[in-house]
Write a structure and sequence with these properties.
Radius of gyration of chain A: 38 Å
Helix content of chain B: under 10%
Number of strands of chain B: 6
Structural class of chain A: alpha+beta
Strand order of the largest sheet of chain B: 3-4-5-6
Largest sheet of chain B: 4 strands, antiparallel
Oligomer: heterodimer
Distance between the termini of chain B: 23 Å
Number of strands of chain A: 49
Order of helices and strands of chain B: EEEHEEE
Strand content of chain A: 25-35%
Radius of gyration of chain B: 14 Å
Strand content of chain B: 35-45%
Shape of chain A: elongated
Helix content of chain A: 10-25%
Structural class of chain B: mainly beta
Number of helices of chain B: 1
Distance between the termini of chain A: 98 Å
Largest sheet of chain A: 7 strands, mixed
Largest interface: A-B, 24 and 26 residues
Chain lengths: 870, 91
């Protein structure tokens, strides 16, 4: 005989029959069934095969601790592998047995929908037993917000009648992670939208209960062997009788309740095998055979159990025919969350289990069975035998007592090592039924007493959490903010290829029909060098630094003097870390005596503002300075090339553009194309250039005015790639490309910008550290390959190609481009003693052969700066 | 995730803050007067106690103010949080 549905009883809804499919068979269930209870009701003994040994496995438990019955769900909500005890039957459910390892379906299922929700409560209770519910009610009746989360579909305590009242209750909701200050992550497996709850609770109560622990004996994985508690639950909750002739094997009185439930449901309890010599039958089980001091050493049957093999204290053996073997080796309080937050464990000899030890954080309490409100038990972990190779400890990993003993005999002592040698506790059930068994087998083998060493550590998540739940709705374009300039739409319409710079989308290049990237970038570069180009520079960071002490402050932040800048003028500035390494750079404009505008690199804007504020608040609170990010308030349009001045004139501005009245590194306020503008003479290409700054709201109009005015002149929009080529031709280093946090201004050949005479600035003292004045530091140089071909960025440079690996490495290539105006490749590199090597040949050993290159000054084009005034 | 008591905004989730390391490390008034060793000690060396210490946080996603916070590195207990400039006083 096998399991069957009882004619009455249980908390299932018999008025709502369901049809589902398992392994191709159409089967019946009722609403409220789990797949495990429905399979048992339909007499399905073998749910799946074990992953390594291929042994038949059936339903072993009734909950989250299930180590045997794993299934793959195909419909309606695909899941590659899940315990059958955790699957609720719905009409049309399609599932099949799955060996212990899941397989993703070939066809990508529709993404699960997940929401993230947030709750702040006075009390969070994890688990819905009576202890937890009464605490929640107490809080709620006092006007506090109380939340109860229960991982099962129904509440565990208070029978059927309990009304939540003012208590908020989540079922199918597993608290899988517990963190500091009552921060708890809860996965609610609701459909079709699953929900990840972020709960912050003033008080957390762990009423997580306890799991019944198995005992290991030969063939203890045979279908028809079930944990106590699960048998009782099968009868009382699902109205399913898992067997007709039962043997109970126990170390404690807790399993007697299962015997009672079986009898009540009409099954025969053939015998109770209790390892305690002094065990007594309770009154309600009178007439049942009690074998006190006996144990079960094995089972028979194929595939389902047909007999339990019992052995007495004197060595007498008895074969007891049965179709169900109920096992209880005591209880393991579910303390995974307690331990994840750093809680300790102590061994309790009366209960033969581990309980919370030490002081809890003031916001945390453990109650009920989890805190030790349990029947007493004796320490009994596995039945003695000659051969332990079929005494299963971790069913899903197919690991036995023999495997644990072999690990200990091989020299391992720590349960953490044994876990990693055997993989016990690493499967879906995370050692809920195997971790303590393993620890005690190790303790015993080493001659240590019970509890000498506790189970291996537990970390979140308590139960599997789909990545889709962690991601929630924050996927694809919603993963992070996307920042677009006011001119973005124009770039899209023009067919720009974009690159991501931090959160910004920047045009990389603007290909014409069928044009390669190389051709597009060359065309854009030549337009700037020979005619005129326009670039959207709105992403550059902009920070207004305002106050009577703003100049003093900036003098301390930059390597050069800023306070001496006249209103209307611009100065390039470099910032260092405290360690003397290049940190960020940009130009600073003096808008008024007490008002500066500092620009930063696109990617550096946030960290520069952070740094300004940190120094002002923590070191110089006496300075009267405010910093405001204005990056998004301005659109910045760079017009560059020998004909740039003509473009601005045609577009219309009241600013006098003549060289004499508007020299390099100054700015003017006025109008441009009818809107207020601040126009700056700065250049990142070496060509005559104007940066037109207008309100972000006017950005697109100003851009279109530039392109319209420039059209007769052949103006080309250019992207970041052309910008990089143009600056590399001029030998301008980019912080973050030429530098990597180990490069000083002296290394960059920028000693001219370090003004030691103006007083202290961030990083100044470090520039004199012994390591930073070594003569053999890497220095910025140019490299020109002998064969004019490109070097890959990142290529290592050696002084001599010995042909033998390793070769002493002398540096690396930081930037490498094709220069259209020079019609050859150019590269920037950081090379040891580089400036002493000008004119010498160095080598880059590459997979295709070694490239030879001549060391040059980093400025490849217009060394005399003859072009910047047009 | 810690619940951090910002002295200006009240208790907020840790994700709103950025950590700033050990508190009370003032930038030397006259760096030139320091030996390389003393300067390197300021730059790179920090305490790493088991137990109470004082650390800096900044409420980056809130008021953007820096403050000091007392924390027990072994137990995660928190003491006072207070604006920078208030003298240290370990519990």
């Amino acid at each position: 005989m096998t399991g069957r549905r009882l004619p009455s009883g249980g908390r299932i809804d018999r008025s709502k029959p369901l049809r589902f499919s398992f392994g191709g068979r159409e089967l019946d269930a009722f609403e409220g069934d789990t797949l495990a209870s429905a399979l048992t009701a339909n007499g399905v003994d073998v749910v799946c095969r074990s992953p390594i040994l291929g042994r038949p496995r059936g339903v072993y438990s009734a909950g989250v601790e299930e180590p045997c019955a794993f299934v793959a769900v195909e419909a309606p909500h695909p899941d590659p592998i899940v315990a059958a005890t955790m699957v609720e039957v719905v009409d049309g459910l399609v599932a099949r047995g799955a060996p212990g390892v899941g397989r993703l379906t070939e066809a990508l299922p529709a993404p699960r929908r997940t929401e993230h929700r947030y709750r702040h409560v006075e009390l969070l209770v994890v688990g819905s037993g009576d202890d937890g519910l009464s605490l929640a009610e107490e809080t709620a009746s006092g006007g506090g917000r109380a939340l109860v989360v229960e991982q099962e579909p129904r509440l565990a305590g208070a029978g059927f009648a309990w009304q939540p009242g003012d208590v908020e209750v989540l079922t199918r909701a597993t608290a899988f992670g517990l963190y500091e200050d009552g921060y708890t992550l809860v996965l609610e497996r609701s459909r079709p939208v699953e929900c990840l709850w972020h709960v912050r609770a003033k008080q957390v109560v762990l009423a997580t209960g306890a799991h019944v622990r198995p005992v290991a004996f030969a063939d203890n994985d045979r279908p028809g062997v079930m944990l106590a508690g699960a048998v009782r639950r099968s009868v009382r909750e699902f109205g399913v009788l898992p067997g007709e002739r039962a043997v109970v094997f126990t170390t404690n009185a807790g399993a007697y309740g299962d015997a009672h439930a079986l009898q009540e449901a009409g099954a025969e309890v053939v015998a109770i095998v209790d390892v305690r010599p002094d065990a007594r039958l309770p009154d309600d089980l009178e007439g049942v055979t009690l074998l006190a001091g006996w144990s079960v050493e094995g089972t028979e049957g194929d595939p389902r159990i047909e007999a339990a093999l019992a052995i007495g204290p004197g060595g007498d053996r008895r074969t007891i025919a049965c179709d169900l073997l109920v096992v209880s080796g005591g209880f393991s309080p579910a303390l995974q969350l307690w331990r994840a937050i750093g809680g300790g464990l102590r061994y309790d000899e009366t209960l033969a289990c581990f309980l919370p030890d030490g002081e809890a954080p003031p916001w945390l309490r453990v109650v009920g069975a989890a805190a030790g409100d349990l029947p007493s038990s004796v320490p009994y972990w596995y039945s003695p035998a000659e051969d332990y190779s079929r005494h299963f400890v971790d069913f899903q990993r197919d690991q036995t007592v023999a495997d644990v003993l072999a690990a200990v005999d091989g020299g391992l002592r720590s349960v953490e090592h044994v876990k990693r040698a055997t993989y016990i506790g690493t499967a879906i059930d995370q050692g809920r039924t195997s971790a303590i068994l393993t620890a005690e087998i190790v303790n015993g083998r080493l001659g240590w007493g019970p509890g000498a060493q506790g189970p291996s550590s537990s970390r979140p998540p308590y139960t599997p959490v789909p990545f889709s739940a962690l991601a929630g709705p924050y996927r694809g374009s919603r993963l992070d903010a996307t920042r677009r300039t006011p001119i973005h739409g124009w770039h899209v319409a023009r067919g720009a290829v974009f690159e991501n710079v931090g959160q910004w989308k920047r045009p990389w290049y603007f290909p014409r029909d069928g044009e390669s990237m190389h051709d597009a970038v060359s065309r854009e570069c030549l337009a700037v060098r020979t005619g005129v180009g326009v670039m959207d520079a709105s992403t550059l960071g902009k920070i207004e630094v305002v106050g009577p002490d703003a100049g003093t402050f900036l003098d301390r932040m930059y390597t050069n003097a800023i306070s001496t800048l006249a209103v209307g003028r611009i100065r390039y500035g470099l910032m260092l870390g405290l360690d003397g390494m290049a940190f960020d750079d940009g130009v600073v404009m003096r808008l008024a005596p007490d008002r500066f505008l500092a620009t930063t690199t696109t990617g550096g804007a946030a960290k520069v503002l952070d740094r300004f504020e940190e120094w002002l608040q923590t070191e110089w609170p006496d300075l009267r300075v405010y910093c405001t990010s204005v990056t998004e308030q301005w659109a910045t349009i760079a017009v560059a090339g020998p004909r740039a001045r003509e473009v601005l004139a045609v577009a219309g501005t009241d600013v006098d553009l003549a060289q004499e009245s508007f020299p390099f590194m100054t700015f003017r306020e006025g109008t441009f194309a009818g809107v207020p503008a601040r126009i700056a003479r700065v250049s990142f290409s070496g060509e005559l250039a104007f940066e037109i700054n207008v309100s972000g709201l006017d950005g697109l109009a100003a851009w279109e005015a530039v392109t319209a005015a420039g059209e007769p002149l052949g103006i080309e929009p250019y992207g970041t790639e052309a910008m990089h080529v143009l600056r590399a031709e001029k030998g301008f280093a980019i912080v973050g490309q030429e530098t990597d946090g180990t490069v000083t201004p002296h290394d960059l050949g920028m000693s001219w910008i370090v003004d030691e005479s103006k007083g202290d600035f961030v990083g100044r003292r470090s520039l004199r550290r012994a390591d930073l004045v070594r003569p053999d530091r890497k220095q910025l140089v140019g490299l020109l390959t002998v064969d004019k071909k490109m070097l890959p960025e990142g290529a290592q440079i050696v002084r001599e190609d010995t042909g033998r690996i390793p070769m002493p490495m002398a540096g690396h290539v930081t930037s490498s481009y094709w220069s259209p105006i020079l019609d050859r490749s150019i590269a920037l590199a950081m090379v040891e003693r580089g400036r002493e090597l000008l004119g010498e040949t160095v080598y880059a050993p590459l997979p295709g052969g070694t490239a030879a290159a001549t060391v040059t000054d980093p400025v490849f084009y217009d060394k005399e700066n003859a072009r910047r005034d047009g | 995730m810690l619940l951090i008591e910002c002295p200006w905004c009240g208790p907020r989730d840790e994700i709103e803050f950025r950590y700033g390391g050990q508190a009370g490390i003032a930038c030397p008034a006259d760096p030139d007067a320091l030996s390389d060793e003393a300067w390197a000690d300021y730059l790179f060396m920090r305490d790493n106690p088991k137990g109470w210490w004082t650390e800096r946080w900044v409420h980056t996603a809130g008021c953007r103010r820096w403050f000091n916070a007392e924390r027990n590195t072994a137990t995660y207990e928190r003491g006072r949080t207070y604006p920078i400039g208030v003298p240290e006083e370990n519990p």
